[in-house]
Amino acid sequence: MNRKLFGFSLVALAVAGCSNVSKKQASGDFEYAEIKEAKTLSIPKDLSAPKKKPDFEVPDNINHQGSIGREVDVRAPSLVLPVATSSRVESNTHNAKIWFDQVLEERDLLDFIYQALKTQLEDDGVGLDVIDAENLIYESQWYNREKESGVWLFEEVELTESFRFRYQFETKPHGRSVALSVELVDYMRTDQSGTSKKMALLDQERAEMAMLNEIVAQVDFQYRKQQRENRLMRANQKLVSMAENAQGQPAYTVEMPLDSLWPNMPIFFEDYGFTVTDLNESKKIYYVDFVKPDIGLWDKLWGDDIPVLELSDQQYQFVLESIEDDSKTTVTIIDEQGNALDQETLTRIFPVMEAALSFRDTY
Fold it and tell me: Which residues does 343 contact at the CB level (< 8 Å), separation at least 6?
């Protein structure tokens, strides 16, 4: 289904009950609405009044102007669906409002949600107007829906409905939380009986909720799209490169903070034939034994074989040092004679080490 048609169909469903009375009314008769309240029992002055139990008394401070009988709308209220990552609703409000918390550190949250709103309206073929830029208030242009009757060449428009929505953003001072509220500000319905600008309160709430849920779904889609782009970027990014450590020895540079790389090194050791025998956490040194793994026939057949490092079976030290404002880490490999592996050796095993220290196949 076309995304535009699907998007607006949810809003249309919110108000479709206007033309289908059976979905709005309770089943059965409504004789109870005609019953008059019984008069209070009159007790003679010389007799004691019976004891009254207030358990089932209906208080008088109720809406006496509310709907009764056939006019009561029995449909369940619509709800805001917080399907987007880190979205939430306030439990003490029935308004069409939702909060988003920061997910993508590289994107401004307010701008991200605003762009998702614009994208949704563009998909629906509806324009977005700026009402108050300082207070972050915007309004949509008209959404239009038509209901036709008849068959093929003899079809005619039976019902036309139009909606305009207001969108207001609210931000926390720290900028990591943004709220979006949706309000129906204009409505017009034209059918065989004429034109009306009135809409039942429940229908209005359902239309607002449906509109907001469409935007939340768009935000969720944009999150997934951005995360996919980030994963592809990381997959193609060279996170490991040849370099030198602070002492001028050949080493690898990993574009990962030391505090992140250090706890992940045991995963690398386990997968590539190293056994950790000791470590010095204060100096960030791992002491390991290396035995070249044997790749069996079944591993090759099932595709479970891991690229093998062309190193001698001996003891090694992996020395990690933080560089460049703690955003990168150098990894120096020391053999059992206490010498750093030379440039030629590091270059030879680089294709395997680059993928391994990027943890590309792990996460």
Answer: 242, 250
Length reported for the chain: 363
Structure confidence at residue 212 (pLDDT): 96
Confirm if 164 and 185 have CB atoms less than 8 A apart.
yes
Minimal CA–CA distance to 111: which of 28, 275, 226?
226
Give yes or no for a contact between 205 and 94, defined as CB atoms under 8 angstroms apart.
yes
Return the pLDDT at 22: 55
Q: How far apart are CA 98 and CA 88, in angstroms?
A: 6
- The answer to whether 215 touches 44, Cβ cutoff 8 Å, is no
Going 349 to 350 to 355 to 359, the CA torsion angle's sign is positive
> C-alpha distances in angstroms, 226 versus 63, 67, 85, 89, 329?
49, 48, 12, 23, 27
Nearest CA to 254 out of 317, 324, 311 is that of 324
CA-based nearest residue to 309, from 269, 277, 254: 269
Among candidate residues 186, 189, 182, the one with its CA nearest the CA of residue 206: 182
Q: Is the entire prediction scored with pTM above 0.85?
A: no
| 154 DSSP 8-state letter | G
Count CB-CB contacts under 10 A for residue 200: 15
3 state SS of 166: strand
Residue 67 CB contacts under 8 Å (≥ 6 apart), including other chains: 73
Beta strands 97-101 and 328-334 are unpaired
C-alpha–C-alpha distance, residues 58 and 52, integer Å:
14
Q: What is residue 301's predicted lDDT score, i.e. its pLDDT?
A: 46
What the block records as the tokens of 90 is 């306030």
Considering just the CA atoms, what is the radius of gyration of the chain in Å?
34
Mean pLDDT by 10 residues, the chain (363 residues): 47 47 70 80 86 81 76 79 91 86 88 95 95 96 84 72 96 93 94 83 90 96 86 70 93 91 91 93 95 63 66 95 88 96 94 85 55
Cβ-based burial of 231 (10 A; exposed 0-12, middle 13-18, buried ≥19)? exposed
* Single-letter amino acid, residue 122: E
| One-letter amino acid for residue 210 of the chain | A
Single-letter amino acid code for the residue at 195: T
For position 153, what pLDDT does the model report?
A: 61
Tell me which DSSP letter residue 238 carries.
-
